[in-house]
Amino acid sequence: MAQVARLPDTRAKRSLNPGSTPQVSVDRSALAQAGQLGGSISQAGDRILAFSEQKKKREQQKEDFGIAQEYEQMQVAMGADREAFLEQAPADGTGFTDKFMTESFTKRRDEFLAKVPERNRERYSQVMQTDLAKWSTSTAKIERDRLYEHSELVIGEQQNTYLNNISLDAGAYDESLASGFAIIDAAPIPEGTKELARRDWEANALTALAQRMIADDPETAKKALGGGSEATGPASNQAAALLREFEGFREGTYWDVNAHRTGYGSDTITKADGSVHKVRKGDKVSRADAERDLARRTKGFENTAIKQVGGKYWGALPVSARAALTSVAYNYGSLPDKVANAVKTGDVETIASAVEGLKGHNNGVNSDRRQKEAAIIRGSETIKGNGSIDPVFAGMDFNTRMKALNLAERQIDATEKFDDDQQRLAKAEITKTGYDLMLDDAITSEWVEENRDILNVSDYKALLRATVPGESPKRTDPKEYIRLLDLADSDPEQAIEEVRQQYGDDLIAKDVFNKIYSRANANVNRETGNRYESEMRQYVRRMLSPEADAPRSHYSRQLDAAFAFDDWFGDNDGASREDMRTAADGIIGNYKGLRYGRETTEMRPPRFLDISQPLTPKAFAEAKAKTVLALKLSEQGGPGMTKQELAEEAQLLRLWGSTLRE
Predict the structure, then answer these.
(1) pTM above the 0.90 mark?
(2) Which of 126-140, 346-360, 488-502 bottoms out in mean pLDDT, i.e. has the lowest?
(3) Can you give the three-state secondary structure of 59-95, one letter per residue?
């Protein structure tokens, strides 16, 4: 039979004793069961609440992760914006920071913070405050650097213009130098950068000035740069001359190693009353003050060196070696131990090697100075008497000034050699023209006399003989005639020289001279590699042949045209006959079209030829020398004209040369 579930029975059972209080009894097992059920329900509720909180927490974590991701993406996007805005920014960077902060940072920050839940907003607001400082600082630095770079570029471009002005005209130096300083002063760059820029600008301007002066007048430039005669007198005097060369004179102060210095690299100033003062920033000294200080310090450092090595060893050295060692002591404060010990050996080569061994000190900044001091000690170089350095070059870097001096000296040598070569070539060309005229029976006694100073004795005699009419025929020994013919084939230049000599000495007849000379000359031309050269050269000469009563300048024109053709042929020695004819016709046309008269020529004047002055041979020689120097400077990378422009100048100079003494 099925059983019915029963609830716990809680019933009061009364005592039958009527006078007593009713007693209630509880079924404790039933109560326990009910409590257990309630606890289970409570625990289930707690579990439901905990699950709900965990779910909420997970959702917040997911939301926080998404916000963090959006923050990182915002940072990447702002970085991309920065690069894009930088691309669009002006060359000097103006407005870059403001544009980025307004159109990128602020906009993206506000959009981001609007998405951030309230509970995280304060934290991200603080983060964005930090980002504000970070991004504004980085973009401001970029804008500043862009401004500095642009400013330096503008300064460089403008200064190149000023350098070009100096390279064209030394007289433009002062104005160009001041303009270069002015653009530095006006530039929005740090003062430290400006100071470096001023030093570099002055150094570059001085280099351009030196090059221009060397091109204009290398002798004057050499003197201005301190290239005087050899220094003489006591060791201290020669040392002072050497120190002027090494240190250079500066009127104002500059910082060097450990002190402010002025004058000839000194940290002291010696006044006229003999008082000595420490150099302070901003001091200025006169040349006289600097000379007094140099004399005092030079003697002092010489005495220091003598005490180090002893008078016995010092006195045994040549005066120039003592001067060089005093220079070392001046630079170091005393002789380095290695040098002092070398002096005590008494061996000049040992001493020189010890000084030369110092060239690597201080990263080799004084390498050239040490090597020159060593050369002076060896006796392979002298000390220049350079007390007359032009003040404008007093502050020039020593090594740069030495290079400029060497260039000036090389140019002096080159100019002298060029003049000698030009004279030699001109003499040879005029002599050849004389014999060509002789072959054409066009030689005149006037032409011979006009060129008497150019022709050597045998050529003068030979050409003068050719002007004598009705020359009696001479019989030449057949053996000698055959010998000369063979010589014309085997050694044509020797044959030309011999027949000139023999004809001048009246040993052979004119017809023999003509045959031998023509044959030898043809062989010479054939050996040069083009049998048409002589033919075309004669064509140029004949087409420009002056009238019988023409002035001498017309002969000069003819000669210059021949030179022009020779120059062309030298660059085109493999040319065909047709090309040579075209070139010859062009040269003939140029010279025929020349309008005589110095003031009315239709051609512009050559750059280096001053047409306001008389057009003398010397003026043309100087112009040629300057053109050659300009070419050398161009090849060395210096400012100025291109090779093509200089070639055109040389051709123009030749054309103008034909107007000489018109």
Answers:
(1) no
(2) 488-502
(3) HHHHHHHHHHHHHHHHHHHHHHHHHHHHHHCCCCCCC
